[in-house]
Amino acid sequence: MSQLSTGTTNLTMTIGGAAVSGGSSFDVINPADQSVVGSAPECTRAELDTAVAAARAAAPAWAAVPFEQRQKLLLQMADVVDAHLVELGRLVTAEQGKALAVATAEVAGLSYWLRETAALTLPEAVNEDSAERLSVTRRVPLGVVAAITPWNYPIGQLSFKLGPALLAGNTVVVKPSTFTPLSTLRLGELLRDVLPAGVVNVVSGSGDLGSWLSGHPGIDKVSFTGSTQTGRAVMAGAAPTLTRVTLELGGNDPAIVLPDVDVPSMAEQLFWAAFSNTGQICLAAKRVYIHADIYEELTRALAAYAATVRIGDPMEEGTQLGPISNRRQYETVLDLIEDCRRQGYTFLTGGTPEPGPGFFVPVTLVDNPPEESRIVREEQFGPVLPLLRFDDVDDVVTRANAGEYALGASVWSADPDAALAVARRLDAGTVWVNEIMHLTPQVAFGGRKQSGIGVESGHDGLIEFTEEQTITVRHHTAPAA
Length: 481
Ligand code: NDP
Known about the structure:
37% of the residues lie in helices and 22% in strands. It is globular. By secondary structure, the chain is an alpha/beta fold. Residues 148-152, 157, 175, 177-178, 206, 209-211, 214, 225-227, 230, 233-234, 248-251, 282, 379, 381, 407, 447, 452 line the site of NADPH dihydro-nicotinamide-adenine-dinucleotide phosphate (NDP).
């Protein structure tokens, strides 16, 4: 496997604008071959306290920077990211395992999100402007935001948090996943030259750092992306201090395929809907309901398409899918596959783990398992997909809406109106027709039910990094009647 050339072993945390190495460090593993990519500082409790204090100290001055100036600084941040696309992309691939082109696009997504976020505004609303009184409602920053990210898109997930939190006038303490801290640490280093000290702090750690941070009394808001289980812990930890939370959590997104689709092109689209980033996307199709009229044809076409996809070393040009990102997730996915095998379900392709040092799992299609099976009910977050047969639209809507998650959903048909009629009946934060996972910096997304609280992106995502404040000015000094 190809290795990174330089610069991965001495990455530092960013605390109060300074480099902090930490007393000790932990290894970051390349999931493609289990080699050590580099090491990351182990943030102590005292260092975290310093980071939060630095963010608090920087907050008033940052909130006082004119909005237009903060917009300009976001653009400068985007320039810095663009100037280091290749370096950051290689780091993401090495620590996360996605194909290099995809990782580089992920980093480019951060600069795109920064630029587009910079164009958002926070207008004041005039409630009353009369001879007697002026009443204005405006949005004010919350203070210090903890941005906690998962390992599937270490830079991508941060792009939904960093620009909006800063533009709204907050300072930030970022904590990446233990599995993928390196690209975020490097980003923190790069941003030191752009932003005032303390405005963005980046810490890394492998133990209790996440809970220390989300429960820290110096934090005003936790913007968290990760599993539902951890999201519940974050919310509980935030309760004593009434810390605000936005939680982007797990999903088990249904895709519903109506019988009138063009099967060959549908097979390719469905494949990428489910298996992009080796299935490790919160908004990926995680259970696919296919109308009985085309079930056999489409599932065969899907298996045939899967055979054409190149899985391997993500650093190598031409690789389309890499390994699972870490041992913990690898074992979760293998356990689900093993459960399918034990229950006697049929694999249309895959099902047998690949030998070798990397966390590679072949694309695995499970033929019509029962609705109550684990592979249908649980979030697999990996390259194993249940294909489910349906005859009746009412029945498939009920099945799609069952379960604790409600993040995304998709409906596929040659007749957009027919698809839209089904889409309107689905219980999910975002429902796509004839596409999937299309997110833009202008449109908010978020989960319902156990998939989360609040939204990210767009104007509503920006609003979540603020609080409402109404200022009322009475023009007369005489007491009101
Ligand atoms: P985890 O919940 O395990 O971890 C997410 C982050 O939270 C990590 O940085 C982790 O740190 C940190 N953390 C762990 N414990 C706590 C705690 N008690 N308090 C605060 N932070 C904590 O999720 P994964 O990283 O495994 O990510 C996969 C999950 O994320 C999937 O369920 C997926 O669906 C979901 N996800 C949701 C998305 C959405 O937008 N809705 C997008 C992408 C993923 P550490 O690594 O040190 O444990």
